[in-house]
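Sample 1 of the test manifest.
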Amino acid sequence: MQLLNMIFIVDDDPIHQQIANIMIRRQGIGENVRTFSDAQDTLDYLKEHQHEPDLLPDLILLDLNMPVMDGWEFLNDYASFYEHLSKEIGIFVLTSSIDDKDRKKVDSFSFVKGYLTKPLSSEIILKLQQYT
Amino acid sequence: MGKALAALVPALLLDGQGYLLEANDRAAELLQLENHYRRGGHYDQIISKRTRICWVELCQRLESELSASIEMYCHTGEWMEWQLSAFGTNYLFTGFNITSRRRRNDKRVFENLPVGLQQFTPEGYHVDSNTIQREIWGDEHPLFKDPDYNIIEDPFYQQIGLSQLFREALHTLQPARREILLRYKEDIRDGVTRLQPYYYEATVFPVPNRETGSTDLFLMLNEITAQKLAVKRLEKSERLLDNIVENLPIGYIQFDHYGFVRRVNHTQRRFFRMREAALDKHYNIMSDAFASIYGFDKLFAKVMGENKMLRIEMQMDFSLEKEWTDLQKEVWVDLTILPLQDPVNKKQIVVMLVNDITEQKRERKIRTQLQRNTEQLHLLFDAVDMGYATMERNGLVTFVNRKAVAMSGGDIKRGCNIFITLPEFAANTPFAIRFAEAMKSNVSESFYSYFSRMDKWYDFMLTPMPDGALSVFIRDITESRKMQKDLYRANNQLNRLNKSLVNQNQQLEDFAHITSHNLRAPIANLKALMQMYMASGQSQERELYLSMLQEVIHKIDETLNDLVDVVQIRKNDDVEREQLYFAERLQYVKDVLLVDIEVSGIQLTTSFEKAPMLEFPRVYLDSILQNLVTNAIRYRTLERIPSLHLKSWKENGRIVLTAEDNGLGIDMERFGSKLFGFRKTFHKNKDAKGIGLFITKTQVEAMGGSIRAESTPGEGTKFIITFKPE
């Protein structure tokens, strides 16, 4: 099992950020965990470093329900440029929504690797490990 | 001397009874006495037969001392005056030559004749002329100027036939006469020159000239222009009359007073299709079998007898008459039979004017039939349960059925003008406009219109007819209109209900969304923290998890409270309303938000004059106003002094409230759909909780109103609230 270099958590909920941080580190699947409260900031970062694979994450855990820019907007924008990224990034949606409509909508983004519902658990982290 | 005298002076010796005793040679020559007559002949036999004065009369004249003389023309060409004088018991009758004296007299007669007279040589040379004749020719005529001029050889006079008269008279030794157009005279009147013809009756008569032994020719010219022109005029009017009669557009048959046809004009010939030969037959109306069938003999006699005009219409079957006409069919004729005097020959005639009225009769019959049909049609129209009327282009009603009269309230009738009689149809009303359109386009117009007088809705169909008139069909659609209205109302209610259901459905979906995201998120956190807490062995870690749990629980509590508020509002649709003044409620809100307003420096302006009051739950209005003001403060821009303008007015019976700020604005394209959502924020503002507009929308909608927003990022936002009509 290869250790993931970098994992991004995109979520406006600070409690969740803390929980995710702790759990990922405790499971030991990634060296670096970086949290973003703002989806726009995340996009800006990815675009800025799109030609620097070392600075790009291996995995992004994306929340849907966020202020200003939500997960959907993020996905729409990401779709327009992810092919130019110098590294393949595994995107997982991690949301509290158990609405089937949301799940189906996410399925329409081919580059999204999975739809995960909160809370983040060791089982979910195991799934992420399997992805790597 | 006595003998010589006796030889020169003609003399007769007569006895008292008038018997000739002796005549000298001279007397015997002048009187052409034969030898046995020179003695014993009687005065009356020798003289009276020439002079008409008998012996007794002459003797009485002598006794009465009157002039007892006679003048006598002799075969020698001499004129003699014979004088009776007593010679003892006998009488002497002596002659004196008075030829020269007589010639002078003749000349005077010649001169004073009331006609022009002119003497010519037999060859045609002018000899003498009286003044009238000279005036006729004119002094400048070569007759008087040129001694070599010969009238017979003048080509002009040859042409007009005058020369011919000379030749004829000379040849026959008889007078020759004819009318000639001798010359034209210029007649200048009103600046127009007309050539006036001058007609003369020219007579040339031969007179033997004893002196020359030849025959002199005398030309007598008598002006007859006036008579000639009168005759010509008469001829002209006769010709004109003739022409008129011939070309009269009605048949003309002229009979003489015996009943014989004398004339049939062109129209009649054509009408009868008369053969040429038929005209030559002697047709008499009094004795014709066909004419008597129709009583023409009696009619003719009546007209002649009473000298009165007669007019009659009759149907004649000409198939019975084959001699005069090829018509061979039944015709209707309008006959006028009138007695007349022929204007030319003044004879009594009878004229029959024949007018073929078969077509008129047929038309009249058709018209009568048509009229009957129309009446039947009108009866039919009276029976139908639909208003029907016909009218002229100008609105004149030509027919209106009973139903239409009833529908109009009983005001219209045949002959009235629809535009004047019914104010509902006057100029610029829907009816008048459609009427004009139908007339213009010649296409039917259908429309319905409210007829206020009868409180009815009528459906009209205006149909232009080929004759330029217009048919109007009227249907009472009041009932169906009412049904339509009810249906419309029911539909509206249904729509409202549907909208309300959709709204409730939307609310349910919203709620599902809220639960899914806003409630499940903290619970998921709780779950995770609990797991972590349980799995942790370190007290320090556990402390951290507990504090985090506390935070999450607080969040859940907050969210639940917000939701309860919303559910309360939605449940409370019969919350008490009261009359509220916008200005008063805004003042209250300003007091509550005093600090925020002061700190932000926001400028609040209002214009509530057009709709100062609203019936609404006080708490809700306060909340709405507070949210609007708070929003304007929270999302102000530091680039300018913040301002908020609140304004109210009425639109379609609804009160509208707008709140327009000059703040950050919202990208409506991006966030428009989420603007009024639960816990939705669009600014990176720490104070933003995304609940204010959600509550505001809930409160407005709970009271039947609506809210929307208009915004331009960087310029400001305008919220528009439309309240439910009171």
